[in-house]
Design a protein that fits this description.
Radius of gyration: 13 Å
Number of strands: 7
Order of helices and strands: EHHEEEEEEHH
Largest sheet: 5 strands, mixed
Distance between the termini: 25 Å
Shape: globular
Structural class: alpha/beta
Number of helices: 4
Oligomer: single chain
Helix content: 25-40%
Length: 130
């Protein structure tokens, strides 16, 4: 199954949230599974990762209210708006979007070979836009 997410990403480009909200969301997701949240602010990364036993099971964007997670990840109750995509496993190609939609939503990455005119995985999106 392939999800066409261009319209979703274009709508996402209009929304913003603070890094503290993203980190709190990543920490909440990690706490729900006994995992850990990871973000390298010093490297300027745009995604926080949710890890379980060193395996990435989710990711939360630092500037846009979106999380991409494994389908069996329990979701914490949160009081803020969060656009949440529950995907197939993060390494499975299951999304398609135009380069323009990716660039508008994430500021860059739409012309990366990992996502350019192909069905891509959430991890491909992470690598293209981190």
């Amino acid at each position: 199954m392939t999800l066409e997410v261009s319209a979703l990403f274009l709508g996402l480009a209009e929304l913003e949230w603070q890094g503290a909200e993203a980190l709190a969301t990543a920490a909440g997701l990690a706490d729900a599974i006994g995992g850990a949240a990871d973000h390298d602010d010093g490297a300027g990364e745009d995604w926080a990762r949710v890890l379980l036993a060193r395996e990435q099971v989710g990711m939360v964007h630092m500037r846009r209210p979106i999380a991409l997670v494994e389908p069996d990840l329990p979701l914490p109750a949160r009081g803020h708006e969060l656009l949440l995509i529950v995907s197939l496993p993060l390494g499975v190609p299951n999304m398609r979007a135009t380069p323009e939609a990716i660039d508008q939503a994430f500021g860059h990455g739409g012309h990366s070979p990992a996502v350019l005119d192909v069905v891509f995985s959430p991890m491909d999106l992470w690598f293209a836009t981190v």
